[in-house]
Amino acid sequence: MATALRDRLQQQEFASPFQEATLNILVCADFLQRRIETVCEQHGITSAQYNVLRILRGVHPDGHARCDIIARMIQTAPDVTRLIDRLVNSGLVKRTRSMEDGRLSVTIITSKGLSLLSSMQNEVDALDHELKKRMTQADARTLSALCEKVYGE
């Protein structure tokens, strides 16, 4: 029986295995979030900004409308418009008008944004390597499948 959660929370019993699983997921998510936040802070951005930059890198040289960015974000940010404004002000993204619908604003990652992501890659890869030391590829696939059971439909 795993004891890391029990030791961390200084709790011997849980109301159910589902409560224990929920708490384990929350502690794990916090552990990983703090690690990615540390990398982002060293590069002058937040993890939400990093998430948007990665989304936009995935469709480069095209971009996404704000609603498409929101739909793809890992964690929903409270005000994506202001988040994008900060990225525009720092030169990491730019806004253009959609060719199909001139009323629609499209956000595109700039070369400065691509360069920032590239400069962060070794540190992001180090997080993957840390996980590789803790679990096998089969473990990672099982964990992903179990997580999808929790939030999937």
Walk me through the structure:
The chain is mainly alpha-helical. A three-stranded antiparallel sheet has the order 1-3-2. Helix content is 66%, strand content 8%. The protein has two domains: 1-42; 45-137, Winged helix-like DNA-binding domain superfamily/Winged helix DNA-binding domain (Arc Repressor Mutant, subunit A). It starts with a helix and ends with a helix. A hairpin with a 7-residue loop joins strand 2 (93-97) and strand 3.
Largest β-sheet summary = 3 strands, antiparallel
Tell me the overall shape: elongated
Please identify which CATH superfamily of the largest domain we are dealing with: Winged helix-like DNA-binding domain superfamily/Winged helix DNA-binding domain
Oligomeric organization of the protein chains: single chain
The CATH topology of the largest domain is Arc Repressor Mutant, subunit A
Strand numbers in spatial order across the main sheet: 1-3-2
Assigned CATH architecture of the largest domain: Orthogonal Bundle
CATH class of the largest domain: Mainly Alpha
Strand elements, count: 3
Broad structural category: mainly alpha
Average pLDDT figure: 92
Total domains: 2
Low-confidence stretches: none
Task: Estimate the strand proportion.
Answer: 5-15%
H-E order: HHHEHHEEHH
Euclidean distance between termini CA atoms = 29 Å
